């Protein structure tokens, strides 16, 4: 069940304990802090924001690139998951699965018979995510994908994006492990690692220039250039 605003979930009487991030990288800006603030104003406790422990590698890389001081990027997450750490959501048991390749910090979350895999696997007619971001690795992405496909066949894989190819118009929310093993264009049974190497970056179009986070207001956009004190490329925000 998904909602377009925190209020919709709260209207159902749900109490949000955790906000789970799968990864962070160059072309996405997270809304986790926004969600945390909105939820904190309407329920008794502040939901914890969790992410993998290797987020520090990504923070260091982009902190240096954009001149963000170390003290400004420390302590911004409430929980740093260890690889394959078990945790609970109410009475439900979950596991934070390390799935590197797209980014080095990438996690998936196995909750019951569901895996929320972020940008590791896409649907069977797309294959895998790209692996050409800083710290990405085609070999790690292949191994992470095959790790997911070693799960029981009935397990549902929920992906972070859907880019319907020609011939498919409807979005697909999830696909089973069994279907991936039979049909995933990059990782199905019988495809070796050297055959899959690099295909994700070729097949998934790059919508923006890597390393330039942005926000867009559709009605009117004004460019704000924030210079970097260390001489690296500036950040460009459109608002």
From TrEMBL:
One of its GO terms (molecular function) is sulfur dioxygenase activity. It comes from the Eukaryota. Residues 10-161 form the Metallo-beta-lactamase domain. It holds the Pfam family Lactamase_B. GO terms for biological process: glutathione metabolic process; hydrogen sulfide metabolic process. SMART domains: Lactamase_B. InterPro entries: Metallo-B-lactamas, Mito_Persulfide_Diox, RibonucZ/Hydroxyglut_hydro. SUPFAM superfamilies: Metallo-hydrolase/oxidoreductase. This is Glyoxylase B2. The lineage of its organism: Eukaryota, Fungi, Dikarya, Ascomycota, Pezizomycotina.
């Amino acid at each position: 069940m998904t909602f377009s605003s925190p209020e919709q979930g709260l209207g159902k009487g749900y109490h949000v304990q955790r906000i789970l991030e799968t990864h962070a990288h160059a072309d996405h800006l997270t809304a986790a802090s926004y969600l945390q603030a909105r939820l904190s104003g309407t329920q008794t406790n502040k939901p914890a924001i969790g992410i993998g422990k290797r987020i520090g590698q990504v923070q260091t890389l982009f902190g240096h690139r954009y001149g963000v001081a170390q003290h400004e990027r420390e302590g911004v997450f409430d929980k740093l998951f260890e690889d394959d750490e078990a945790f609970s959501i109410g009475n439900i048991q979950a596991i934070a699965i390390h799935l590197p390749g797209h980014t080095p910090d990438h996690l998936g979350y196995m909750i019951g018979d569901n895996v929320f895999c972020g940008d590791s696997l896409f649907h069977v007619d797309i294959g895998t995510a790209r692996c050409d971001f800083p710290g990405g690795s085609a070999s790690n992405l292949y191994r992470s994908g095959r790790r997911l496909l070693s799960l029981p066949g009935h397990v549902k894989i929920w992906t972070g994006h859907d880019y319907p190819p020609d011939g498919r118009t409807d979005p697909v929310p999830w696909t089973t492990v069994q279907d991936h093993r039979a049909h995933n264009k990059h990782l199905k049974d019988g495809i070796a690692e050297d055959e899959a190497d690099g295909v994700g970056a070729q097949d998934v179009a790059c919508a923006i220039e890597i390393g330039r986070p942005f926000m867009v207001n559709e009605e009117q956009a004004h460019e704000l250039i924030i210079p970097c004190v260390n001489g690296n490329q500036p950040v460009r925000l459109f608002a």
